Amino acid sequence: MWKTLYKLNLAESTVLWNAFPWHPHKPNIEASNRKPTSAEVAAGADILSRFASLYPNARIVAVGQVAAEAIQRIGLPLAGAVRHPSYGGATEFADGLAALVAS
Question: What pTM was computed for the model?
């Protein structure tokens, strides 16, 4: 993700935040990753909304479907969505973000 942000000259002006602001991991395997559950995303909705309010002029881009759904659910303006770079999606993420920047 950061490699792409630097390549597009966005790294210094980008703030990242997760729809679920904690680390979802497999039971008893803290170094693992997993998709947050709907309940976990719902639990993070208020925090996401409050965090976004700190940047009232920000262009919000969802990284992944979970983020897009969370942002839309709380009514934030969504400038676009790109594929999450995990699980082989790095190229689609980079291409999608480049397309959003160009528009």
Answer: 0.86
